[in-house]
Amino acid sequence: MVTETLHDLAAWRAALARHPRVMLFKHSPICPVSDAALVEWSAFTTAHPEVPTLFVDVIADRPVARGLAQECGVQHASPQAIAFRNGRAVWHASHGAITADSLARAAAAAA
Q: Which residues contact 31 (CB under 8 A, 6 or more apart)?
């Protein structure tokens, strides 16, 4: 499955409606910590192509990143990963806590 890049909140809402579980990654392309988390995210998505995934560039799509925080009730961070089950955030991590293993465990728990 290909990661869907979000450019508006309507696309996020539509993705939640389509997928009972979905993983979201918020990335800052100017942050070295976010680059390290992106490597982990990429390892996770490669190992688990069956898991629907969403991506937000927090610099290019700042209103989307901030709006997601308001709508899902998880305080904004970057980098940040959030697992959703049936439209609700059930897990989140930021910075060094984002690893391929933690993402895989969160995806399995959200299933």
A: 78, 79
